[in-house]
Automatic annotation (TrEMBL):
Entry keywords, A to Z: Membrane, Transmembrane, Transmembrane helix
Sequence intervals crossing the membrane: 7-24, 30-48, 55-71, 77-95, 102-124, 144-164
Full protein name: Rod shape-determining protein MreD
Length: 170
């Protein structure tokens, strides 16, 4: 019975992550809707829990997003999303040893850059392997990425700042 409630709790958490993604993307006005919610979730979860469950949560989140959001290639969110969560966990576990605001901002930067790089690499690799003959790069521009980066870092700054203020230091 305990494992049933544990599974139910994790499923509810996953549904709340998907709900948060949709609320930020579709309800908030433009500059705030450009926030990359999975990056914020990864960094905040690592700062609060410090567990590797985040990789599995991101697998579930990106799998549900792949199903619910139309995309030209299946896996163009799932594969880069899970790999960027793994990169973030690895960096947090082995490179960044303290829980400071600077660490959170740098971890958010690494996560978002790795996600966008892996997305571009996945799309290019898919185009090469599908033998279409036409190489199509991802359809986002540097301006959109800049706005996404700034809004994600701003949201991460606010959340981590208040989390670190609440944290008791001895």
């Amino acid at each position: 019975m305990k494992s049933f409630f544990n599974i139910l709790q994790r499923a509810f958490f996953l549904v709340m992550l998907v709900f948060t993604q949709f609320v930020v993307s579709y309800v908030f006005p433009f500059p705030f809707s450009a926030t990359h919610v999975p990056t914020v979730i990864i960094v905040v979860y690592l700062f609060l829990q410090e567990k590797r469950h985040i990789v599995w949560y991101m697998f579930g989140l990106f799998f549900l997003l792949e199903i619910l959001v139309p995309s030209p290639i299946f896996g163009d969110m799932l594969v880069p999303g899970v790999l960027s969560a793994f990169v973030a966990y690895w960096c947090y576990r082995f490179l960044f040893t303290n829980q400071s605001l600077y660490t959170a901002m740098l971890l958010g930067t690494i996560t978002l850059l790795s996600y966008r790089f892996l997305t571009a690499a996945y799309v290019v690799m898919f185009d090469i392997l599908s033998k279409k003959g036409i190489l199509v790069l991802p359809s986002w521009s540097l301006q959109v990425f800049g706005i996404e980066f700034l809004m994600t870092e701003f949201g991460l700054f606010i959340i981590i700042f208040f989390l670190l203020k609440r944290k008791k230091t001895f």
